[in-house]
Fold this protein.
Amino acid sequence: QVKLVESGGGLVQAGGSLRLSCAASGRTFRNYAMGWFRQVPGKEREFIADITWTGFSTTYADSVKGRFTISRDNEKNTVYLQMNSLKPEDTAIYYCAAGVRVGMYDYWGQGTQVTVSS
């Protein structure tokens, strides 16, 4: 079992930045691929970014490519999402997820709200 807790969300003006964190506890964090997703109420969950357990490979959705950066610190059992040049359409609840490989996520956090004002 892996428990994931997101933090770092909040209200920011368009063009601003936020850094989300996802702290993991339970089974060995370094064994898991990690992903970030977001969801707006009434809409489907959207993939944002993922990172392999080594941290050597990352993937981004086109909507965030060049603005968001995913990273991980296996010593701190934490994955990060640095979000720059935020837009109002980035407003959503952001979730982190863990799985044995990217795209196969078994564990989810409770989410953190990000609101970008225009």
